[in-house]
Write a structure and sequence with these properties.
The chain contains 9 helices and 13 strands. It is of the alpha/beta class. Helix 1 links the parallel strand 1 and strand 2. Helix 2 packs parallel to helix 3, helix 4 crosses helix 6 and helix 4 crosses helix 8.
Length: 318
């Protein structure tokens, strides 16, 4: 199978290319060549820039499938489809759970959950526009490729090489042990998907030439924030006490924390993706691999979460 990956050298794309190569696929990468240029030295690269609309490098060639990892606004997707036309068999778009409506959602929601209205009049990516822009991208892919379109909607993706460092914060914090400040209730549900499970799903969907929309969520068993922190500590060999602190005392975008009104969005059904071949890596395995990767890179500053001093002040009030 010949696969063109739009993106492919950062986090999700990197895992995807790894899996595709292991499966014996012939992979071609398209991107600016600035990120991960040392990766996959034997994989052909086409250099271009989606921000400027430079798809000149894709004027020739054909592929069985394209995986769009780096499409965030309708212009990106529209220009890619115009450049590729019918020289690709299947167009698989990596979307997001942010496309879904935020109210009226119950636990176990599936891929038929109502989406937010698509947005096309901006390319400013923020909390309010990210999901609606992705929804517009989905619509455009479906309109152009029909039964040759596949949509994958990941939840929070975690694992080694995670540039957002969401799980990494909790892995690192739990490894220190002691009293751990949690700006939420311990029973808050949390869904994270190992990047390698997401990659395996994507490649399997391409191999099976399967259309439709699929949730990519994990881990294997329903998990709460308290259980996640405890798992991180167990993997690191430390002891922790999870201490709830006021959510309003921290940034509203604190790693993996969601307001209670959004807890059902952390309880989506993985049934369709599981049936299509998505594996379920145990959370402890993902945590162990993140811990090893983070230590190997020297545990650089994360840029979010609580510093030791900030956490000590919050805990002093409990």
């Amino acid at each position: 199978m010949r696969i063109l990956v739009l993106g492919g050298t950062s986090f999700v794309g990197r895992a995807l290319v790894d899996d595709a190569l292991r499966a014996g696929a012939e992979v071609t990468l398209f991107g600016r060549g600035r990120t991960g240029s040392e990766l996959f030295p034997h994989v052909p690269r086409r250099i271009g820039d989606r921000d400027t609309g430079d798809y000149t490098a894709l004027q020739d060639g054909s592929w069985d499938a394209v995986v769009d990892v780096s499409g965030y606004v309708p212009r990106h997707v529209g220009q890619a489809m115009e450049a590729l036309g019918d020289r690709v068999g299947r167009y698989l778009f990596i979307s997001s759970h942010a496309v879904y409506a935020r109210t009226g959602v119950g636990p176990g929601s599936d891929e038929n959950t109502p989406r937010r209205p698509p947005v096309r009049d901006t390319e400013d990516l923020n909390e309010e526009t990210y999901g609606p822009l992705k929804a517009a991208c989905e619509d455009d892919v479906l309109a152009r490729y029909g039964s040759r379109a596949t949509i994958v909607r990941p939840g929070k993706v975690v694992g080694p090489n995670d540039v957002q460092n969401g799980l990494t914060y909790w892995v690192r914090r739990a490894a220190r042990g002691g009293r751990v400040a949690l700006p939420s209730r311990p029973e808050q549900p949390v869904q994270v998907i190992d990047s390698r499970d997401l990659a395996r799903l994507v490649v399997q969907l391409l191999v099976d030439d399967r259309p439709g929309a699929f949730h990519a969520v994990g881990p294997a068993e329903p998990t709460t924030m308290s259980e996640l922190i405890t798992t991180c500590a167990q993997v690191a060999g430390s002891q922790v006490e999870v201490v709830p602190v006021p959510a309003e005392a921290v940034s509203p975008f604190f790693p993996l924390i969601r307001p209670e009104s959004m807890w059902p969005t952390q309880q989506r059904s993985p049934a369709r993706a599981r049936a299509a071949g998505m594996p379920a890596t145990p959370l402890a395995v993902t945590v162990a691999d993140v811990l090893a990767w983070d230590r190997a890179r020297g545990e650089p500053p994360l840029g979010h979460g609580l510093s030791r001093e900030e956490e000590a002040k919050l805990l002093a009030g409990t």
